[in-house]
Each structure stands twice: as structure tokens, then as C-alpha cells.
Write a structure and sequence with these properties.
By secondary structure, the protein is α+β, with helices and mostly antiparallel strands. The protein has seven helices and eleven strands. The termini are far apart.
Length: 213
């Protein structure tokens, strides 16, 4: 993690567009060259972020995903900005549109559900547990591949995920009403069939139960 002094930080963010902020300040900035600076605040004194900062986790998760051939952002640098008490990761965003942005593309709905089912099975088979899994964090790239963004909250295992983690992951995917309605069209048949044919750990009945709850 590289130290970034206040003068260099101000120069880096000059002319930036604020994409996300809260009462504590800026959270995500789009810099003038199109790259992203994502800022992380340690919310508590005693937290795992003190020895393993979220910015570092984000970067490490990108490395792990690329090793497993999953599209994701490209890291430029990880910073500690002492003057504003923030850690930051500077990266090039994954090009494309999120699945949530494509919800109204009715002609492509079933192909996307099919592709998403295969993609989620692939993640699970490669040991990837994405706790922030929802349609706003999954991107369809210009090459028609699916990839992940906003990946600080992700864990990578050496082996395929056990059944309990897979079912928990499905519950995360349907916690937003618009995502749930799209994913469970016709009782989620398209998604479940394509997930099921790519793995053999979760039965269709178990998957359906997890999604419907």
C-alpha cells in the first residue's frame, strides 16, 4: 500500500466526478481519465480493516478473480491517504453494463438469465463466494462475458463452495425487489436450469427453495 500525501491526492482528484458519497465524505470518484478512485473509511477502531484494509482486499480479490479467468476491474494502485484518514484503490472499471441496467431489454432477458445461471455456477465451482451478489454488481462486457464489480466483500476458497454457501448466496441475489422479479420470472426456471446443468451439488428443489424464500 502506497502512501499518498494530501497535495498528490488533491492533484489526482482534480476535476473528478463524485459518483458516490455519504455524510462522511466522498466514496467513489471518476477521475478525468475515466479511471475510478474508491475510498474506504474505517468505521470502528477495532476492526479487521486495521490490519487488512478494504482497499487491499479489493485489489487482492481482483487478482484472485483474474487468476480464475473472471472479468473484473484492473488495479492501478492501492493508497493510504493519512490526511483524510482513508484507504483507496485506484482502478480501471470493467467496461459494460450491469444486469440491472439491462432489466428492460426484454428480447435479451432469457439469454441473460441463462448466462447468469452458468456464470454463478462457474463462480461457485471456482470457489468464489460473492456476498454482495446482486444484479447491480454483475456486468455484461462488450465481449458478452459476465464479470464482477464492487468486490471488496468477496471470499475465495481453494475448493468449490459447499452447498450451504451456495444457497446463502442465492438468497443474497433476490434481496432487491427488481432483481427478484426479473430472476424469478416463470419461477426462475431459466436461471435454475442453467445453474443446475453446470454443477451437481445443489438440486433444483434446493435452489428453488433458496430463491423463493
Amino acid at each position: 500500500m502506497q502512501a499518498l500525501d494530501h497535495t498528490r491526492y488533491l492533484a489526482l482528484r482534480e476535476g473528478a466526478q463524485v459518483l458516490e458519497a455519504d455524510g462522511s465524505g466522498d466514496k467513489v470518484l471518476r477521475l478525468t481519465d475515466g479511471s475510478i478512485l474508491k475510498l474506504f473509511r474505517r468505521k470502528r477502531l477495532l476492526t479487521s480493516a486495521a490490519w487488512y484494509p478494504y482497499a487491499r482486499r479489493f485489489a487482492d480479490n481482483c487478482t484472485a478473480l483474474r487468476e480464475r479467468q473472471i472479468p473484473c476491474p484492473t488495479i492501478r494502485e492501492v493508497y493510504r491517504i493519512a490526511s483524510i484518514e482513508r484507504d483507496a484503490v485506484h482502478y480501471d472499471p470493467l467496461p459494460g453494463q450491469t444486469l440491472r441496467q439491462l432489466l428492460d431489454s426484454h428480447d435479451a432477458a432469457d439469454p441473460l438469465r441463462s448466462q447468469l445461471g452458468v456464470f454463478m455456477a462457474t463462480l461457485h465451482e471456482r470457489g468464489i463466494y460473492f456476498r454482495s451478489a446482486h444484479l447491480g454488481n454483475i456486468v455484461l462486457t462488450p465481449e458478452h462475458q459476465l464479470g464482477l464489480i464492487d468486490i471488496a466483500d468477496l471470499r475465495v476458497y481453494r475448493r468449490p463452495l459447499r452447498k450451504s454457501l451456495r444457497l446463502r448466496n442465492f438468497k443474497h441475489m433476490v434481496r432487491y425487489p427488481q432483481d427478484r422479479q426479473w430472476l424469478l420470472d416463470r419461477q426462475g426456471e431459466v436461471f435454475m436450469q442453467n445453474y443446475g446443468r453446470t454443477q451437481s451439488i445443489c438440486t433444483p428443489e434446493e435452489l428453488n427453495s433458496a430463491l423463493q424464500k
